[in-house]
Amino acid sequence: MSNTENNKRIAKNTIMLYLRLFLTMGVSLYTSRVVLNTLGVADFGVYNVVGCIVTMFSFLNVAMASATQRFLSVEIGRNDILQLKKVFSTSLSIHILISFVIVLLAETVGLWFLNTQMKIPAERVNAAFWVYQFSIMAFAVSVIQVPYNASVIAHEKMNVYAYVGIAEVIMRLAIVFILVWLGFDKLILYSILTFSVSVIVFIIYRSYCKRKYEECYFHFYKDRVLFKSLLNFSFWSLFGSLAWVMMGEGLNILLNIFFGTAVNASRGIAFQVNGAVSTFVNSFRTAVNPQIVKSCTTGDKEYMTSLVFESAKYSFFLLLLLTLPILLETNLILRIWLKIVPEYSIYFCQLVLINTLIQCFDVGIVFTALGKIKQNQLIGGLIYLLIVPVSYIFLKLGYLPETVFYVQISATIFVVFGVNVYLLKIIGNIQPMFYIKKLLLPAVKVGLIACALPIFVKFIMPDGVERLIYILSTSSLSIIITVYFIGMNKNTRYNLKNALVTKLSSYR
Fold first, then answer.
1. Is the CB of residue 323 less than 8 Å from the CB of residue 277?
2. Is 402 helix (H, G, I), strand (E, B) or coil?
3. Which of 36, 177, 253, 308 lies at a 20 to 30 A Cα distance from 184?
4. Structural contact between residues 204 and 146, judged by C-beta atoms closer than 8 angstroms
5. Alpha-carbon gap, residue 312 to 3, rounded angstroms
6. Which residues have a Cβ under 8 Å from the Cβ of 457 and sit 6 or more positions away?
7. CA separation (Å) from 53 to 103, 105, 106, 115, 234?
8. Single pTM value for the model
9. pLDDT of 330-364, one tens digit each?
10. If residue 452 lies in a helix (H) or strand (E), which one and from where to where?
């Protein structure tokens, strides 16, 4: 298949994912507000902090998910059906084992931590216990689901991924109405219903994959080489995932220990906002990543490199388009959205979004495609693990809650622009100047120029809905124009112009 056809497939898959995303984001923003108002700040904080204990064990799952998707993409690129069957069955066996280990750890170490270390209001301890149990079960189901998700993504069937996502978001919308109508303990009910949605989504993915892909039938294969390869790749991915999860949820627990569940609610809101906007970027990269791995497998390193840097650059442009109005009008947007705005939510939202913008410059997919992730995961993981003890020291000295996010941003800058750029040269033979020229410089130019007009509007107009509308308009217009004239290279601009002219001509 030619690179032009591959690009068309990426574009088509991206459109399908965005159709899914627009609905998902809209429902997510609505349901978050209703859930917060229905549960109250205290119970919403309890749900977030209890759920984070289970999420701490997700590093096992994240590591294997990355390995599974990569190995499936490689075998699809090679068109080796027998090896593809072996990869799927072996990964499914490992995920079932991981699910068992997670449940075991969660019901021992995790339960001890919940009962002895967490600050839960006395009257909500029983509810927190049941939230924890259903969170464990939902997470175990999601672990076993990973090989099926990976198969859909590796085959680049993003329409299926989109349709299932839409079905899931409709079910989560139904949860909100049930939560409002029924008089049962709403925190426990919310956990039960969320678990039920996880089970239904798993059944849908499993049924589809077994019907469409012959490799998705489980067979026991005694292939030690494959098993070792999967685990070896997963081990280093495991370390990086462990560091990332421990950093994120460790900070959540630190905020609980020092400031209580109200601050956890603020962090929960910040990550709801961040999740809503960053999903746009994740959807784009989900569509691109299989092609990056496959092009590397077939030896087309030039196309792989082009995809990596172009996808990273446009990820930043897309996220900037979404986040700039939020960063400038966080206070008003949260007031309109939530009505009840937990303390620190504004600062947390802004800092988390800034950190996510910086992460757009991470091109670690190069190491995944090459199958050489050891140094990237080891060094980056160690740095991210240091964030929690460093944050603890600052909080112990009396610093404010947002300090933990400043520490995280500093670590992200060092990893993305320091460690990874150095490793690109050592492992991928990609020079730092190439990284600067192809990614960093165009993004910085667009960011500086495009932000000028919206920031000017913010300072000359009084606070209110009218200013929000002007900022939305000016930021969108300035970013689109700046990306077209500065962010795009000549070939991309020429191809876009031709595509638009052709499309408009077809309507005449």
1. yes
2. coil
3. 253
4. no
5. 18
6. 467, 470, 471, 474
7. 12, 11, 8, 11, 22
8. 0.73
9. 999 888 877 778 888 999 999 999 999 999 999 88
10. helix 441-460
